[in-house]
Amino acid sequence: MTAALDQIALFHPTSSPDYLPVDQLRQLQLQRLQQIVQHSYDNVPLFRKRMDERSLTPTDIHTLEDMKLLPFTVKTDLRDEYPLGLLAVPMKDVVRLHASSGTTGKPIVVAYNQDDLTTWAEVMTRTFAACGMHAGDVVQNAYGYGLFTGGLGVHYGIESLGATVVPISGGNTTRQVMLMKDFGTTVICCTPSYFLRIIDKANEMGLDLKDFPIRAGIFGAEPWTDSMRKRIEQLTDIKAYDIYGLSEIIGPGVGCQCSAQEGLHIFEDHFYPEIIDPETCQPLPDGTEGELVLTTLSKQAMPMLRYRTRDITTIYNEQCSCGRTIRRIERIGRRSDDMFIIRGVNVFPSQIETALLNVEGTLPHYQIILTKHNDLDQIEVQVEVTAEHFSDTIGSLERLRKKLSAAIAEIIGIRVNLRLVEPHTLQRSEGKAKRVIDNRNEANT
Amino acid sequence: MKIQQLSVFLENKPGQMAAVFDILGKSSVNIITMSTADTEQFGILRIITPEWEKAKTVLEKGQFVVNLTPVIAIQVPHKPGGLSSILALFQNQGINIEYMYAFPCAHTTEAVLIARFEDPCNVADVINATSDFKILSEADVFKEKKSCEIQS
Hints:
The complex is a heterodimer. Chain A is α/β, with parallel strands linked by helices. Chain A has helices at residues 7-11, 22-43, 45-53, 75-80, 114-130, 149-161, 173-182, 192-204, 226-236, 349-358, 394-412, 440-444; strands at residues 94-99, 109-113, 138-141, 164-166, 187-190, 216-219, 239-246, 251-256, 264-266, 271-276, 283-284, 290-296, 307-313, 315-316, 328-329, 334-335, 340-342, 345-347, 366-373, 376-384, 417-421, 436-438. Chain A has a 9-stranded mixed sheet with strand order 4-3-5-6-7-8-9-15-14. In chain A, strand 5 (187-190), helix 8 (192-204) and strand 6 form a beta-alpha-beta unit. In chain A, helix 10 packs across helix 11. In chain B, strands 1, 2, 3, 4, 5, 6 and 7 form a 7-stranded antiparallel sheet that branches. Chain B has 5 helices and 7 strands. In chain B, strand 5 and strand 6 (110-117) form a beta hairpin. By secondary structure, chain B is α+β, with helices and mostly antiparallel strands. Chain B folds into 2 domains: 2-69, 2-Layer Sandwich (VC0802-like); 71-142, Alpha-Beta Plaits, CATH 3.30.70.260. Helices cover 38% and strands 36% of the residues of chain B. At the A-B interface, helix 11 and strand 21 of A face strand 1, strand 3 and strand 4 of B. Chain B: This is Acetolactate synthase 3 regulatory subunit.
């Protein structure tokens, strides 16, 4: 079963699973679903217990529709079963472990057997193919290497594609720029916020990425917006692709944009997507916004049944102009875990980002500071001034400030205190962007 | 006849101004004149210097946001009513001044008014066509300063 990947087959519409006729795809999904439910039931005590509680047996799954009978899995299940309670194969068959950083409580551990790694490399190869990459590309992988799935997941995908990988990992931004220039990097993989940091650093070094051979960026691991994509593309003359993944499912490689850049294709022959209402947990039809739930159809070491991602999106079932038949989801703009509530209103940082970007010429280096004053929530948005929208008159800066603050108020419905700050004063991330600083509890104590 | 003014964005907090002039001093940039505009949150520092190119480079390297702004330097009599006469001209011509600042030349009867207009070229044309006021070139302004220094 550990057949070497046939890259040629993965690229061609006649043989890549991306282009399977829909009825064949559904048939394959059902067959895999039945196998994975049986495998999970037989080998994972938690899944067995939950199915028994519902008087459900694996043989009750007759159609893909029957998926809704299965119990959900949530992030805390992985914490509660720390480290390897959800393992579905003998430990001797596990060839790789990854873990989340575990900033809140115990980390989340995920395991892979050899077949899982092959699947992972396959979906990453299909990701890169969709983004127009090929053998001969020099790919700088600035995702963090180590326990985080981003670095190694992307790494083996690049090797499997036959491209050249530069395993630089995250951080050391000056060296990132230097190697990008000296190695003639054609594609970079990192978080979008880190790429903005790289653009900044190149400018500081007196270099313009437009003069570099780089032509594409594979960005993920944090929510970002389509306007930010256009901004990156404008600043650097590259194509900026959004990829989607999460460790609990496999890591990067769950879905990606294609050349059409209209939503992200989910590799649904391996990861079955559903949308549910996060309140009622009822499945919603394609085209309706809700929480994304994923079921791994082929992963053996640690299968996930109906894993609640907390990512809010919509499934598109119309066929994409690129010809792929696998369904797409809308770019993840909101995650329930970066949402904050201010004066009773739910606000997502991405909403503020959209507002900032809608006002012409604003680079998204910003930070949201939440404080409490006389028991009332206060929100301040700090935005770094850049040379391109700095003018020599107070009036024009005040106009910019008002415009930004009005754009935010229009989207979130709350007035914010908008502060223009000097460049490079906001905390930069070498990995994920820290957009929200919540000091409300501190102020009260 | 426009001259280049450096405009620097500053947050309104202690030490920001010192940081700018520390950089300029260490780079041996001499300042002809300057002014500041401030609000509660931020300010703008405006600088006239012959070495504006170098000043811009070193300030940007120090991670300040710097813009070059075209302003006009006009020679005005350094005596009571000197400024008023040019302002009367602007008033008559319906010209709006965005902001202005001035420096006198010690031991001479002249002062230099630095002013910012929305359309500097048009203003220069109007001044030349309707008055005897002299619009100074970059060389004039910097020479003016030098002659001040020599005499003082």
